[in-house]
Amino acid sequence: MIEELHKADELKVVVVNNTDLKWAEEHEKSVLQSCKLFLQPEWDKTDSVIARINTYVMEHPQWRISLQTHKYMNVR
Question: Is the pTM for the entire model greater than 0.85?
Answer without folding.
Answer: yes
